[in-house]
Amino acid sequence: MSNTKEVFKPNKKFAQNARIKNMCEYQALQDFATEDYEGFWGGYAKEKIDWIEPFTNVMDESNFPFVKWFEGGKLNVSAQCIDRHLDKRKNKAAIIFEGDRGDKQVITYLELYYNVNKFANLLKEDFGVKKGDRVVIYMPMIPEAAYAMLACARIGAIHSIVFGGFSAEALKDRIEDADAKIVITADGAFRKEKPYMLKPVVDAAIDEKSPVEKVLVIERNNEDVEWVAGRDYSYNELIKEKSAKCEAEVMDAEDPLFLLYTSGSTGKPKGVQHNQAGYILWAQMTMEWVFDVKENDTYWCTADVGWITGHTYIVYGPLAMGATTVMFEGVITYPDAGRPWKMVEEHRINQFYTAPTAIRVLHKMGEHEPANYDISSLKVLGTVGEPIDPPAWKWYYEEVGASKCAIVDTYWQTETGGHIVSPLPGATPIKPACATLSLPGIMGEILDPQTGERVEVGEKGYMCVTKPWPSMIRGVWGDEERFVKSYFGDVKKDGKAVYFTGDGAVYDEDGYITITGRTDDVINVSGHRMGTAEVEASIKKHPNVAEVAVVAKPHAIKGEGIFAYIVLKSDDGVADEVEEVKAINEVIKKEIGNIAICDDMVFVSGLPKTRSGKIMRRILRAIAKNEEITQDISTLEDPSIVKKIQNMVRK
Ligand code: PRX
After folding, report:
1. Ligand 1 pocket: which of 384, 442, 501, 532 to mutate (most atoms <8 Å of CB)?
2. How many CA atoms lie within 13 A of 336 on its CB side?
């Protein structure tokens, strides 16, 4: 929990020019939303979105949780992000790209317009992509990834980005679930000055049953790749011929914009669906409020476009508001832990947004590195993806922010589309490691899952949102039941289902919210969500694994690490433990990717189960943390197993 005694007030000078200048203004906005919810959202939707046709209804929740926002409204998200800025900002940098090896590229709004239009024409003319088609994007962090997203948005195709660290199997599952006919990829890219490959992963993900008909390959590292004639096409060749004008498709406010697969509590990832108007509205509003980016500012978010943070806060949010967004291909600790601060100095970055894992690594590897650079341009520092611990927060605040920058600890998820709980940099007094308050318009509340009542101060409850908001998840692709059950099944307030995030949270005496972590079987490794069931399913593919249970274990850098308890099929014990661990990790790499590799693997003779066969994960979590077992184990099928496992772990 946050230390409630330490409070840092917003920088006065900064607050004077901020969009939301103080807590009275914050409260006034939240009161307005509470009293006239539709007036609040309708007003902002009219003001912020460049509508082709105006909407006729703000919100329809008659079929809750299938909610519709801004019905009747027509728009195009790529036009919202590009075309409407051309009058005022055509020569302004839209994207500043820095490659792994330090190569740089500035793309103005006018250039972005041309590039996206050409890309859109290519998809339409050469690949026959139409409105509603799903396009999988498997790309490194290069500007073409943003062009691909915006080109899809321009022609009404639904993109589904798969993070470049996922394996061929994981990519294949996502391609098939979305029934995507097109994949956009690159030969590869650079990491730590060495080329790495993506195209071979795409090749391995497409078999004869695959729905994929065409693959578009962007040249980045110019390494040789296999080529399937009639299926694979070179972007660099095709794009030369394309016209730089492509009419933006007229989209309904509730047409799907993208899918993004994320882990849940079952083995199969969910295709989270976001739609057009509500998503882009909140992406833009939160950019303006939470980062308070000004016309001449340069903003950098270190995420990857493969995650929701990259979608909302590298591409859609910044471009919708006409900002300059930095895109970085490399590794922030390479060649050393001064890299991000060198970039801040060189690009005069004003807002810097990263994950606690990165902050912890930068702290550990280069505590005093920030002082070696002129990073005085920084005004707002952001953090996202996992709970941040007070020591990392303090270092960020003092060493990076020189005790003058606000830290916005932004709490949200793939499903919320944009921030839901966060400080406002010019208004909210901040406390270390505390996400503070719901943003204006968001009815966030910590509820008791049993009674649906708001919990008391200091009492742990479930983080919920009690009213639908514009950027709320619209569905799980192809699975309505899972959508309803996953998010609207656990908590009821006044008898009505509310959105449950899956996270626990607690109020302090000022009503501030501290997120305490997931309440389900989802592990947060370096800010990446991994379902334990997903990792278990991959481990089970190893022929010698009989049973497996995966739990989270606190990790000094990654926040949480993956701890696997494995029962092997052969009882002879493990001939060579190191080899067995290696072999199982190879299976995980193949099924999911490097991000799911286990930090700890222990071979045990059995798992603690109830008589009905349920694995008692709480016991396994406690053992992984080396904690006392406080719960009654006499009801287990075999109580002696607990001691045995403890001995194995301590070995
Ligand atoms: O557990 C919460 C944690 O990350 C989860 C969402 O993961 P994902 O959908 O991958 O999106 C990550 C980027 C938004 C949440 O359920 N989380 C996210 N932000 C925070 C956080 N936990 C604590 N504090 C945060 N600021």
Report:
1. 384
2. 8
Contacts of 621 by beta carbon, 8 Å cutoff, 6+ apart: 551, 552, 553
Task: Give the model's pLDDT for residue 2.
Answer: 47
CATH architecture for segment(s) 36-331: 3-Layer(aba) Sandwich (3.40)
What's the gap in Å between 627 CA and the centre of ligand 1? 26
CA distance 324 to 326: 7
Substitution candidate for ligand 1 out of 386, 416, 434, 525 with most atoms within 8 A of CB: 386
Looking at domain 522-650, its CATH architecture is: 2-Layer Sandwich (3.30)
- Tell me which residue has its CA closest to atom 6 in ligand 1: 413
Residue identifier of the C-alpha nearest atom 22 of ligand 1: 386
Query: Is the per-residue pLDDT at 8 higher than 90?
Result: yes
Query: What separation in angstroms does the CA of 222 have from each of 70, 182, 301, 577?
Result: 45, 22, 27, 40
Ligand 1 atom having least distance to the Cα of 435? 26
CB 526 within 8 A of CB 357: yes
Quote the pTM value. Answer: 0.96
Q: Whose CA is nearest to atom 21 of ligand 1?
A: 386
SS3 sequence, 567-624? EECCCCCCCCHHHHHHHHHHHHHHHCEHHHCCCEEEECCCCCEECCCCECHHHHHHHH
Q: Which CATH number fits domain 1-35+410-520: 1.10.10.60, 2.30.38.10, 2.60.120.260, 2.60.40.380?
A: 2.30.38.10
Ligand 1 lining (C-beta closer than 6 Å): 262, 307-309, 384-387, 409-414, 435, 501-503, 515, 517-518, 524, 529
Q: How far is the CA of 527 from the centre of ligand 1 (A)?
A: 7
pLDDT digits (tens, 9 = 90+) for 517-571: 999 889 999 989 999 999 999 999 999 999 999 999 999 999 999 999 999 987 5
